[in-house]
Write a structure and sequence with these properties.
This protein has an 8-stranded mixed sheet with strand order 5-4-1-6-9-10-12-13, with helices on both faces. With about 220 residues, it is α/β, with parallel strands linked by helices. The protein is built from 5 helices and 14 strands. It binds cytidine-5'-monophosphate (C5P). The site of cytidine-5'-monophosphate has 14 residues, from helix 3 and strand 9.
Length: about 220
């Protein structure tokens, strides 16, 4: 049986890529499928939580029982997440949010011109870092990091730099890990210094492992 250790809690999960428009027919995006975030939303609901899933464009069935809110751009995701943040206990940011967007969106389709073309990009807001600044004592923040190199160093820098409680790092160069796979290979870093290195497993099982750790932290805080 599934433990009901998230009963009565409000959980917000983000998933998928964002799309940053360049003109009416083109956008910048990334290879995120949304599978990890959808697995987390489903698992949190099964453990008794009220779950809202803020998702970028993904070709996946919305998990039953979960309130789904669809967005396209990082700006829209920022608005949606900030709107709900104050009333949630746990936020898991599994979305692959674009760091940059085209600085200007052309109202008309951009025509071919010459042999080279330049696009100026503007920085998107870092949603998770903003949540880290606003976080209250009862709230738990879980971030993700997709790394190709220096995984441990980058993971620890994000954990403290963004004021997170847990950081899930995946080496996207490993076979069966990261974008678009049904499986993942992750390490979960906590503020207590405990690092769990999990073997290759299905994303639904990875989701359970992440929620095991989050539920324990939430319980210890509510008991405190
Ligand atoms: O620093 P980096 O972008 O690798 O951090 C990844 C984590 O931060 C993920 O949890 C991602 O959802 C979140 N993020 C965000 N807003 C951004 C960029 C990343 O919330 N603009």
């Amino acid at each position: 049986v599934t433990p009901q250790d998230l009963a009565g809690l409000d959980v917000l999960v983000t998933a998928g890529p964002t799309r940053e428009p360049l003109d009416p027919v083109r956008y910048l995006s990334n290879r995120s499928s949304g599978k990890m975030g959808y697995a987390l939303a489903r698992a949190a609901f099964l453990r008794g939580a009220r779950v809202r899933l803020v998702t970028g464009p993904a070709h996946l069935m919305p998990p039953p029982g979960v309130e789904v809110q669809r967005v396209e751009t990082a700006g829209e995701m920022y608005e949606a997440v900030l709107q709900h943040f104050d009333s949630v206990d746990l936020v898991i940011k599994a979305a692959a949010v674009a760091d940059y967007r085209p600085g200007e969106v052309s109202p008309q389709k951009i025509k071919k011109q010459g042999q080279a073309m330049q696009i100026e990009l503007a920085r998107n807001p870092d949603i998770l870092a903003e949540l880290g600044r606003r976080k209250k004592a009862h709230q738990l923040l879980v971030g993700f990091a997709a790394e190709t190199n220096d995984l441990e160093q980058n993971a620890l820098a994000k954990l403290t730099g963004k004021n997170l409680d847990l950081l899930v790092a995946n080496d996207v160069t490993l076979p069966g890990a990261g974008f678009d796979h049904d499986t993942n290979v992750v390490r979960i870093f906590g503020r207590d210094g405990v690092v769990e290195a999990l073997p290759l497993m299905d994303k639904n099982r990875v989701a359970q492992k992440i929620l095991d750790r989050a539920a324990k932290l939430l319980q210890s805080r509510q008991g405190a």
